[in-house]
Every structure is written in C-alpha cells, then in structure tokens.
Amino acid sequence: MSDNRPPLLHNYGSINLDHVYRVPHLVAPGETLASRDYRVGLGGKGANQSLAMARAGGRVRHWGRLNHRDAWARDTLAEAGVDVGRVTLVEAPSGHAIIQVDDAGENAIILYPGANHATPREALAELVTEATPGDWLLLQNECSGLETLLSLAAERGLRVAFNPAPMDAAVASLPLARCALLFVNRPEAARLTGLAPEAEAAALLDALAARLPQTELVLTLGGEGAWHQHAGERRHQPALPVAAVDTTAAGDTFIGYYLAACQAGLPVEACLRRAATAAALGVQRQGAAESIPTLDEVERALTQGPAAPEAPITPEAP
Question: pTM for the complete prediction?
Fold first, then answer.
C-alpha cells in the first residue's frame, strides 16, 4: 500500500534547558542577589519549533542531542507528538540557558550550547541518508554543522527551511541559495542585506529577492505583521490585536504553525493567518514551550477573530 502522507519534516534543532530566576533587578558586577522564584523548563529554538509543529498537527522528526540525565526533555517532545527516535542521549552536558527576569520584565541570558554543538559529521550524514528525497529539513542557528548539512541536504534532494536565529556573522557565509524557504525577522533581514534595521519592509524584501531570487521568504515584523515573498509575488499578513505578556517563543510558534499548514497543503494566505493566530495566542502567556497553543485553540481563535484592538484573542473564548 502506498503512503499518501505529506513529506516528513526533519528538524535538526537545539534542545535547551531554561533555568529561569526571578529577581528584583538584574545582578550587578560583584553582587550576590537572592532569587524569589526558580523554574526549569524546555527551551531552545529547535525544540520550540518542533513542539509548535506537532501541536499544529504536523509530522515532525527531531534530530538533536541531550545529556542522558535530561531525558525528560525528550519525553516532553514525544508527548506532544514529535518523533524523537533521532534524539540521542549523550554524556556531554545539555545545552542550557541561565535566565534572569527582573520586576520590570527585563532579562539577561547566558547561553551554553553544550550537546547542541556536539554532533559529528558522520552522524549528520547518517541522519540525512535516512531522510526521503523531497522531505523538508528545518534548521536554526543554535546547532553546529549547518554548512555541512546544507551541502548534504542538497545532495539528498531535501528541501531546506532555515531560520538564521540567533543571527551571527557566520550566517552570511553559508550557502543560503540552497534554502527553499527562509524565515527572518527585521534585524536578521537587515544584517543579511546590509540595510539599516529601520529600513522599510519593501526595501528589505527587494534586497532579499535580489540576493536569493529563488528562495521563498517569510519576513516577520512583530506588530507590523508578516510578509511572504516568492516568484515575484508578495502577500501581507497584518498583526493580530493582542495584549502581549511574553514574546519569547512567538517566532518559533509562527514558524512551526506555518510549516504544519504548508505540510497540510493549505494556501499561503491560510498558512500566514494560522501562524499569526498561533503566535498571537502564545504571546499572551508566560514562558517559551509552555506558551505554544494547541491546534484546537488556534482553530477556535480563527473562527472567533479579534473584535477590536482592545479585545485580545484568548484561548478560553468561545
């Protein structure tokens, strides 16, 4: 019997443990400060995007590495519907972030990549070989070996979606033309094109099209919404009117829901709308992974729609 399911998405992505400390103010040099609250949760752009795609009903297989003592993070992904058969437990420490959050909502973060930067080339080659030509490969910039993977994916006939966050100088030297789909925000687009961060969306899109004429582009602009550009056509998705509480995983939520909608065969306009709605729900909650809404919540919000700028979409609304 033939398999008529859509192509699988493989996500080679970071899995981090977020250690969050609530403090009255950010620690000053030489100061010892007591934390009023502490929690540890699942984080990392890769894990967030896999979780968002699974909650959106998509088929996603995560590629990643964790310390064997942190298997609970892998189990959290599995419980959401992510295929974790290629998440390897290793001796290296897991990637993790030490996050201070003060009473004004400001934060300071120390990030240690750990096991996210410990995948050898031969392991990457094996993972790519297991993928079926025509599958999608999703990448972010929190894992090592991206240049190797872009080359291996092209040879295997995989379609690459890339979110170059967190942006650094090394991204500009990657063979980005091999990406079928690129997700960027305003600062990332500015760095890739050499334009000023305050450049208009049209200028950023023009410059991106000139540099990557064959690549499908999604430019996210926060309160200005998002733009889609491909094959000479542009579409705009306005931002939805919500009262944001925490925007930590908004971009990851958008990407996961967008890709799941694409996988389901929805038109671009519907993909953008669904992704924007999911992100709007997520920013009304605290946290990263825990803020990502379920598909039922998103579909209810799509039906409900925002009534006015002062009336945010809420998952509890009928």
Answer: 0.91
Reported as a single tens digit per residue, the pLDDT across 239-286 is 888 888 777 789 999 999 999 999 999 999 999 999 999 999 998 887
**CA dihedral (158, 163, 166, 172) positive or negative:** positive
DSSP the chain: ----SPPPEEEE---EEEEEEE-SSPPPTT-----SEEEEEEE-HHHHHHHHHHHTT--EEEEEEEEGGGHHHHHHHHHTT-EEEEEEEESSPPEEEEEEE-TTS-EEEEEE-GGGG---HHHHHHHHHHSPTT-EEEEESSSS-HHHHHHHHHHHTPEEEEE--S--GGGGGS-GGG-SEEEEEHHHHHHHHT--TT--HHHHHHHHHHH-TTSEEEEE-GGG-EEEEETTEEEEEPPP----S--TTHHHHHHHHHHHHHHTT--HHHHHHHHHHHHHHHTTSSSSGGGPPPHHHHHHHHHH--SBTTB---TT--
**From 75, 102, 252, 296, active-site residue:** 252
Q: Is residue 252 annotated as a catalytic residue, yes or no? A: yes
Q: Residue holding tokens 């997520």? A: 282
Say if residue 238 is preceded by a cis peptide, omega within 30 of 0: no
